[in-house]
Amino acid sequence: MPDTSTVTLTGISKSYGIVRALRDVSLEISTGEVLGLIGENGAGKSTLIGVMSGTVRPDAGTMTVDGTDAPLGDPRRLADLGVSVVVQEQALVESLRVYENIYLGREALAGSRGLSRARRLRAAAGELLRDMHIDEFGADAVVAGLTYPQRQLVEIAKAFASAQHTARPPLILLDEPTSALSEHETELLFSLIERWRSRAAFLYVSHILHDVLRVSSRLLVLRDGRVIDTLPNDGVTDARLHELMVGRERSADYYHEEAQRGAVSGRPVVQIVGGGKAGAFTGVDLVVRPGEIVGLAGVIGSGKSELAAAVAGAERLDTGAIVLGGVRRPRWTVPRAVREGVCYVPPERAQDSLFPKLGVRPNISVGFLDVLASRWTRLLRLAAERSRVADLAGRLRIKTPSLATPVGELSGGNQQKAVFARWLARDCRVLVLDDPTRGIDVGTREEIYGLIRELAASGVGILLCTESLEEIIGLADRIVVLRDGRVSAEIPAPATAKPTEVDVVSHMM
Amino acid sequence: MTQNPTKVVVPDVGGPPAAPGPAGPGWLGRYRNIGVPIVALIVLVVYFGVQNAAFLSPDSAQNILRQLAFLAVLALAGTFVILIGGIDLSVAAGATLSGILVATWIDDLGGPLAIAAVLLCGAVVGLANGLISTLLRVPSFLVTLGMMSVLNGISNTVSNGGPVSYQSGLLNTLVNESWVPGLPNGTLIAFVLVAVFTVVAFATSYGRHIYAVGGNERAARLSGVRVRAVKLSVFTLSGVVAAIAGIIFTGQASTGVPLGADPSLLNSIAAIVVGGTALSGGVGGPHRTLLGTLVIVILSSGMDITSVDPYTQLIVKGAVVIAAVVLTIDRRRYGTIK
């Protein structure tokens, strides 16, 4: 077995529709190295991991292992070449035992079939766990009975196990491996990486800069799918990394900043007081005033999405309360919120907000059926429904063959406009937007930004949660930054004095 | 933002390509669901008419209307449950039990009270189905499959396993006489129920919420629909309507019969599916069910008139259900079958 092995990526590009996730990415990583991969949400980190592990097939580019072409888009054969991966979404079979999971699909490693194979696998897994200093659970434990961090350790053990059996030193991809781990477990992982370093190459992806700086020998910064810089981890500061990660030119026109007015009243329309939700956020105080656009910033997993959902009634608070118009609202649910004028545009259109087989018309009118019901008969005024929906479709310029067309057949931008239209026909006091422009083309984005400004100008309080820092800075009057479920900063962002992305990022990580 | 209320729809000329659309030409896809039962209806009427002219006689029409009464109401009971994406397999057993209860109670309690009590029982059965499936999160087909057996047991216990006779003439009046000439009252009730339910489906918030829950439960919840309340009420409604079907059945049979309505379960589901209501939920409606019932009733009465033996009839009906599902299923939901 050779002592070292080198994996090289050259000119890797990948687009999802209009989103260019990776553009001409090249990198090289050899045994003995820990390459730290950093970048903002949506910089292309996960896509790059996907390409290297074979779950994402790039549009262009090559990957070689020790000079020979690697089969892109074939996870199984890449694994045979020594690439193994620990991802954020766990891929364990809950009903199986730890050792069965570790060697799933690779049972042949323990030799011939037969009754003794299970015993040999169990012994091998037991030894691996000992080597990893994992003693909280045995190789015999059923995965369903393990906690989330313990499962994460199983994932890591799985990656190391496959690394033990390849012909050349392996490449181990770690995507946010510590997000669920306790301090003790994180230390375990780091000492493991340290000990394995001479025998493997590591690619380490994390939002926790502190960890990346500690464990990596070299750093690679991605921004908008491009490699911005690779630099040795030698006296690099957090601040320098923040600068590299962000730094786009922001167009004031694009976000209609000239129309930014700020709150029209000092009295909050909606508040969260001491809000907490297990596993998401704790001790959060948040205020949204009429006419104000409040941006929620934070890395994925910071709790910002859950916080936005809680304001909309879609997540229940464990502690604290929602206060609307000065009144505490216990048992805050979406139907109640909608009745009180707090309306929600959730992040995943297909799963969270559309009725794909229903026409555009019912998809829009579902938001204001109570308004359409006749006072006397409680029957819907169908003519009013037609004219209202037609007005809204015209106002938002929804492109559709007809209003009876199933909404699933529209483009993403037009679908999202239909979701906005749903709430425009009622008197909203607060609009909670979670990633309202995800997967939407630039033109439609600008229309949606214009619409958000228009709504704010009419006195609607807006809580905006998005993955794009640029969007938050461009739109918000005030930015609330969440880190690990706590508010780490509140940054004013008036049109005349917008903060930079570095200002915001430094509180996110 | 330009205000442009007069020009309703901007044709999609240069915009980004639409999301992966349906297979085949749009209009065909769109009208296939409603087209299939109408074409089937025409083909069946012509075929049986040619085979045996008696099929087109007034007697035959009366017979078809009578059969339609019970089956349409039974299928109606299952329609809303299928629209929310569930299924109620206990409707036929519920109808049987109601038929027996009304026969048992009508002479003692008097007609109106007996009928009210039976409808209340139906509501309780439906509510039980709904509570078990929503609160305990059990798939509705399992809950209602179990309920079917429970109800059959109760029916046989109440009736001691034999027919239950009664004296009252009320059911005969309500079901078999004709206030509208040529139209048995039972069928009239079925038509009225279908009409009411169709209005509920399309012109009330409640109806729209049913489609929303069936179309995408999560999206329904996040857009302010009280999903659990909708589900509970739909199951309850199913139980009540199944009870009405049972009363019609007993009225037509003039006795309460254990297991009487049970064999009609498959026919009722066939009627719903043939009418074009998707088993996946969110698409279809009560008016479709009436159309589907017409197809099923004409098919079976046509086969009777042309002397197709009962065993062959079973084979044909089973095949029709499968064919209807094949023709109307939305394959977009099942990516791997293509």
TrEMBL record, chain A:
One of its GO terms (molecular function) is ATP binding. The keyword Transport applies. Keywords: ATP-binding, Nucleotide-binding, Repeat, Transport. Pfam families: ABC_tran. CDD domains: ABC_Carb_Monos_I, ABC_Carb_Monos_II. This is Uncharacterized protein.
